[in-house]
Design brief:
GO terms for molecular function: dUTP diphosphatase activity; magnesium ion binding. One of its GO terms (biological process) is dUMP biosynthetic process. The protein is mostly beta strands. The chain has one domain: Deoxyuridine 5'-Triphosphate Nucleotidohydrolase, Chain A, CATH 2.70.40. The protein contains one helix and eleven strands. The protein has one helix at 61-67, and strands spanning 2-5, 12-13, 21-24, 31-33, 38-48, 53-58, 69-71, 76-78, 85-92, 98-100, 105-113. The strands form three sheets. Strands 2-3-11-6-8 form a five-stranded antiparallel sheet, with no helix packed on it. A four-stranded antiparallel sheet has the order 1-5-9-7. A two-stranded antiparallel sheet has the order 4-10. The radius of gyration is 19 Å and the shape is globular.
């Protein structure tokens, strides 16, 4: 996959079995996030995702578990025809201020295949056991 990134900021896999490549905060100085505060953080990365794929931006589990930092719209989608800088919308769901340092790993990028459907307008849909049941309609066990 083609990638244009500032030196040291290209997405990287932390291990041979990693599904997501780490994205880093491309900042000139530390960013302070207060509890409940949101901020869009640049990564310095531009991608050329192949047609038929998407990039999914996901939180890093360590940041979420230890500090309450997560990606607001997780997973966020990067379309294959987008060429702008990858920006990460972070939120502090914790109870204390968190500092994001330049170069910190702030999110993960997962590439996934995409199928575009052809939608057919109809008034008749097939019946199922669930029917129109919504949230929690299939039980809790």
């Amino acid at each position: 996959m083609r990638c244009s990134a500032h030196r040291g900021y290209a997405p990287e896999y932390a291990s041979s079995g990693a599904a997501g490549a780490d994205l880093r905060a491309f900042l000139e100085e530390p960013l302070s996030l207060q509890p409940g505060e949101r901020h869009v953080v640049p990564t310095g990365v531009h991608l050329e995702i192949p047609p038929g794929f998407e990039g999914q931006v996901r939180p890093r589990s360590g940041l979420a578990a230890r500090q309450g930092i997560t990606v607001i719209n997780a997973p966020g989608t990067i379309d294959s025809d987008y060429r702008g800088e990858i920006m990460i919308p972070l939120v502090n769901l914790g109870d204390r201020e968190v500092s994001i340092e330049p170069g910190d790993r702030i999110a993960q990028l997962v590439l996934a295949p995409v199928i575009q459907a052809t939608f057919v307008d109809t008034r008749d849909l097939s019946e199922t056991g669930r029917g129109a049941g919504g949230f929690g309609s299939t039980g809790t066990r």
